[in-house]
Amino acid sequence: MAASLSGMYSNQSSVPTAGHLTTPPGLKTPNGTLVDELEASFEACFASLVSQDYVNGTDQEEIRTGVDQCIQKFLDVARQTECFFLQKRLQLSVQKPEQVIKEDVSELRNELQRKEALIQKHLSKLRNWQQVLEDISVQHKKSTEIPQGPLAYLEQASANIPAAMKST
Prior knowledge:
Layout: H1 2-6, E1 16-17, E2 20-21, E3 28-29, E4 32-33, H2 34-50, H3 52-56, H4 60-95, H5 97-145, H6 152-159, H7 163-166
Antiparallel strand pairs: 1-2, 3-4
Helix pairs in contact: 2-4, 4-5
């Protein structure tokens, strides 16, 4: 990933050496690269959470302090890494502003497509609810045609009885 960024700039190049790409100058630190430090600090965070020393330890405050230190180091290295990539992004925007505009246009197109799909989904739901309301309205109209009142049910039931049975 770092190599693909370094190739974007005319004044920097990455040269393959022994199967690995060289790291851009800004990404190197005294302890290696920021990515290596980020990975190591993440592994240290994970190791501190599953370490037998912490599992068997009785001093909860000591455990908490150790975990907090690991997490803080991870966050610090993550901020440094983010800063590096933000600096590279700024360099790109200065050297190739058309690239940034192309990316913005692409992001806007994707957002429009997502919103169009969302609108279509809501329209479909709206049509379904309109159909439900229309069905309820039709049922309500049918129920208003039926006589209302305490004897309405009996009147309706007696209307359905054949005349031959009524005479008996």
